[in-house]
Amino acid sequence: MASAFIAVDPNTRANGCMQLLKGSHLLGRIEHGRYGDQTGADPERTDVAMKVLELVYAELDPGDVLFFHANTLHRSDQNKSPNPRWSLLCCYNTKHNNPYKASHHPFYEKLEKVSEMLT
Question: Which long-range contacts (CB under 8 A, 24 or more apart) does 45-53 make?
């Protein structure tokens, strides 16, 4: 699975741009859950990762695209500036990456081609 983060507005440190931990995708999947008022990765593991991995700020201009691995730890700060920070996040998941258990994510099933349209 991969993500494409497309900036619609300028994304700057001042308006809370995306932050990523460089190389964190190599840690493997980190359990996500509800922690306080937020949903995210296990804070105990992310705190340790932040001590050893470089934090990168993704400052983007409108139209810039940031591609990143599904396991890359990422976050953004609250936008406290007067400027909007709209972005579009698109995710791609191959059919070979089915969920391992039932969830809100769909399972991929092969479609059978029919010879004619049924009415």
Answer: 46/21, 46/73, 49/21, 49/24, 49/73, 50/21, 53/21, 53/22, 53/23, 53/24
